[in-house]
Amino acid sequence: MIPEIDIWRVASLMLKRYGSNAELESARRADEIWDDGDMAGAAIWRRIYRCHRAAFEHDTSWAGALT
Q1: Model confidence, pTM
Q2: What are the extents of the domains in the chain?
Q3: Contact (CB, 8 A) for 18 and 25
């Protein structure tokens, strides 16, 4: 199991790299890995996706604070 702090670190790095497309990119990666048959890997990317969703739904200002 990957610690929650590491999931949020990846979410933060994705925001720096992909900006407002980070949510879409994490969902795309989850789907791609699922299609390859890696259920555990897809579950990790779904957790990252949920971080992006939670952040943008509740407070969009946190994304700017991470960059």
Answers
A1: 0.80
A2: 4-66
A3: yes
Task: Measure the CA–CA gap between 7 and 5, rounded to whole angstroms.
Answer: 5
Q: Give residue-wise pLDDT tens across range 13-43.
A: 998 999 889 999 999 999 999 999 999 999 9
Residue 12: half-sphere exposure toward Cβ, Cα within 13 Å? 11
Q: Hey, what are 66's tokens?
A: 């991470």
Residues 6+ apart with CB under 8 A from 4: none
Angstrom distances, CA of residue 49 to CA of 25, 40, 56, 60, 66? 8, 14, 11, 15, 16
